[in-house]
Amino acid sequence: MTMTDRKLFRAAVVIQEQSSRQRPVSDAIYLPEYSWNHLQQLRRNITRARERGWHLAAQSLLGTLADAGRSMQRELETSLRTLATHMRPRLPANASAIYQDLRALQGEFDKVEIDPTTHELTVTTDTIELEGVFLGEFQIKLNWTDIGQTSHPYRVVALDPNPAARREDVTHPHVQDEQLCEGDGRAAIAAALAESRFYDFFLLVNQVLHTYGQGSAYVELEAWDGTPCADCGTSVSDDERYDCNGCDSTYCSSCSSSCEGCNNSYCTSCLQACADCGCEYCSGCLKTCSVCHKRFCKECQENRVCTTCYEELHPKTEEPNNDSSTESPSETACLVG
Predict the structure, then answer these.
(1) Is residue 159's pLDDT more than 50?
(2) Torsion-angle region of residue 263: left (phi > 0), alpha (psi -120 to 50) or beta?
(3) Which is more confident, 323 or 47?
(4) What pLDDT is attached to residue 335?
(5) What b-and-e string marks burial along 135-167, b requiring 16 or more CB atoms within 10 Å of the CB?
(6) Would you say 158 and 203 are in contact if contact means Cβ atoms under 8 Å apart?
(7) Separation of alpha carbons 163 and 290, rounded Å
(8) In whole angstroms, what is the distance from residue 279 CA to residue 158 CA?
(9) Which of the two ends of the chain, N or C, has the fewest CB atoms closer than 10 A to its terminal CB?
(10) Collapsing DSSP states into helix, strand and coil, what is residue 250?
(11) pLDDT digit string (tens) for 232-267?
């Protein structure tokens, strides 16, 4: 969508007037809050897995936690490096410079929108595909009145979302809840916003969206299309998934087991231990004892009565001693002698 020069200049004047009334950018100090919340969630998942005895799942999540921790460390280091940039007073935007940026954006992106009502300047990216994973087009929506007042005055909105299988809020390896993890580009993006260089800002964000940083993603691309385990949340590929025959949910190998009776796959919630031998069975392979009403497997019951109750109902009688030899050891010794 191409606007006339007159409309572009009017929009530039509006942006200049509204943005120049905002507080200096030094008021906004970035902290990696999203990454920290992600770490907290991973820790809760690990604790839950350990409490349930899912040691393999907990071990896998520990690796994910380590990667997420290193990613947050890089973000924090970047934040500290750019603190001086944030502390510099923001110069008032120049309407002529903004106008030139708007014209340049129209030459760079197929669709540029300016909405004075919502104070948003929006560009639409081309279709993004990273390592064979289709992610679609994104809108980068900058609220120019929020510059200097929040750490993220812009949103990244997926137009044709293909979110990660295990996290619906992640529409791009580096986008969660419409917030971009800028990574190493944070300093350059912050500087472009501080100096009202809108053309540079949108190009930088677009470049981050076209880049995949393995190890710093909210969800790695190799796990993008995997099915999440219904218990621990670990992404499971189609050839490694286990479908529970009881609840039809998908589980990983650590969160699924086999029934000792029929050998079908079940989740731990759909299996029950035999009250006698302790082996795990599905509901169809366990029968209720008609006396104690507990559940037992086929091997631990007889005629719908468990072994323990059967023995109590049919106690064994002690057979008489038919041994004719009643001699005492001393008498036997004498006879031998």
Answers:
(1) yes
(2) left
(3) 47
(4) 40
(5) bbebbbbbbbbbbbeebbbbbbbbeeebbbbbb
(6) no
(7) 52
(8) 49
(9) C
(10) strand
(11) 766 677 677 788 988 878 888 888 888 988 999 898
Residue 175 identity = V
Phi, psi (rounded to 5 degrees) for 106: -65, -30
Report the alpha-carbon distance of residue 59 to residue 66 in Å, rounded: 11
Which pLDDT score is estimated for 138?
Answer: 98
User: Residue with structure tokens 């750490």?
Assistant: 151
Q: Which residue has the tokens 């934040």?
A: 79
Q: Which of 66, 77, 78 is nearest to 38 (CA)?
A: 66
**Spatial separation of the C-alpha atoms in residues 111 and 125, rounded to whole Å:** 8
75 band by pLDDT with thresholds 50, 70 and 90: confident
Contact predicate 173/221, CB 8 Å: yes
pTM over 0.85: no
Predicted confidence at residue 336, as pLDDT, reads 43
DSSP per-residue codes, 196-249: T-HHHHHHHHHHHHT---TTSSSS-GGGTTPEEPTTT--EE-TTT-EE-TTT--
Q: Cα–Cα distances in Å, from 309 out to 278, 290, 306?
A: 17, 9, 5
Alpha carbon distance 314, 17 (integer Å): 96
Spatial contact of 1 and 113, defined as CB atoms under 8 Å apart: yes
Beta carbons within 10 angstroms of residue 80's beta carbon:
10
Q: What is the dihedral of CA 24, 29, 34, 38, to 10 degrees?
A: 180
Assigned token pair, 122: 């929006």
**DSSP structure class, residue 323:** -
